[in-house]
């Protein structure tokens, strides 16, 4: 193979001009869903959303106490299709 056909490893490739390619629009949007309530209420809602196919149970954050006694919260970062 000829050495002339190999790229020079010391030469940085020239990136294409940004106007050469359209910027792809993300196909998904990230949302956050927060559940706040009793430990039982949050757990049962997470299981119900799982049964509807919304999100895996393990995708939710661990339960965290809020400033109100007996109240906990859990957060889910979820992707939805963008219109």
From TrEMBL:
Superkingdom of this protein's organism: Bacteria
Region annotation (Disordered) ranges: 1-27
Name of protein: Peptide ABC transporter substrate-binding protein
Organism name: Symplocastrum torsivum CPER-KK1
């Amino acid at each position: 193979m000829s050495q002339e056909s190999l790229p020079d490893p010391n030469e940085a490739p020239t990136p294409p001009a940004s106007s050469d390619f359209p910027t792809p629009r993300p196909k998904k949007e990230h949302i956050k869903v927060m559940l706040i309530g009793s430990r039982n209420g949050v757990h049962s809602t997470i299981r119900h959303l799982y049964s509807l196919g919304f999100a895996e149970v393990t995708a939710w954050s661990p339960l965290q106490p809020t400033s109100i006694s007996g109240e906990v919260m859990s957060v889910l970062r979820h992707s939805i299709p963008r219109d």
